[in-house]
Specification:
There is one protein chain. Helices cover about 0% and strands about 55% of the residues. The radius of gyration is 13 Å and the shape is globular. The chain has no helices and 9 strands.
């Protein structure tokens, strides 16, 4: 965890190849900022999966309530910043 205050929670996630976050539900809107090119695999409720190719420095936004398990499918170590927006 890099920042935790009344407005935001910023966490740096670093994964070895094949490592997983574990199943979780996001309690806040959030932005992901990739720290390199890579690929993540999202396991979703109901058994579906989705590949997420990521580009260095190109962020994306998701709303509160997303539930998934994220797996590093980049073929090597991978890291990103997660910025959660508190209300």
């Amino acid at each position: 965890m890099l920042i935790d205050n009344d407005r935001v929670l910023v966490t740096k996630w670093s994964f070895s190849d094949g490592a997983e976050t574990g199943w979780h539900r996001h309690g806040h809107d959030y932005v992901i900022v990739p720290l390199g090119d890579g690929k993540l695999l999202a396991e979703e409720p109901g058994g579906g999966t989705r590949e997420a190719p990521l580009k260095d420095g190109v962020p994306y936004f998701r709303e509160e309530g997303v539930e998934h398990n994220i797996i590093n499918a980049s073929g090597g170590p991978y890291a990103f910043l997660e910025i959660e927006i508190k209300r």
